[in-house]
Every structure is written in structure tokens, then in C-alpha cells.
User: What shape does this take?
Amino acid sequence: MVRQSTAKSHRVGRATLVDDGAITTAYRAVVAVPCEQCGRVIAPGALFSRRTRRASIGAMGLTLMEPVCTTCRPLRLDDAGTGARP
Ligand SMILES: [Zn+2]
Assistant: This one.
């Protein structure tokens, strides 16, 4: 069997944010993760994107990658390879 890893998501591929047309990376949740924007749970198997947030801890700068659901930031997959969508 596959040993359980700490990964909570799989990288799916490149996606475009519907809102502003920005290129982002789409992820698929492996376990339920909370959306950092609205607080709703992103269900396992659902797509989501991540936003970066700068946090400074003392003199150190840190870039956090926070999950954001597709309700907050709708996205369109660019290279998903599903092929079934119109
Ligand atoms: Zn959300």
C-alpha cells in the first residue's frame, strides 16, 4: 500500500483565474482543507488554487501558500487533459 504522506493536495496543472486572467497552479485536495478566504471546507477531490501571502517573522520574510476554494477564486484548467469539457 501507499504510505500516507504529509501531502494534502496534488498538483493538477496550470490554470487561469477567471477573475483577472492570471496564471496560477491548480491543486486537487487529498484531504479536506479549509479555504483561507471564506473558511469553507474544500472537499477531498475538489480543485482549488493557492494564494501567496507574505509574512514577516522578525527579520525573516516568509511566503505562505494558502489554499483558496474555487468559489472565492474561480479557475479554468489550461492543461488538465480531461478533454471532456466543452
Ligand atoms: Zn473560499
Notes: The chain has one domain: 9-77. The beta strands are 9-17, 23-29, 33-34, 41-42, 47-57, 60-69, 75-77.
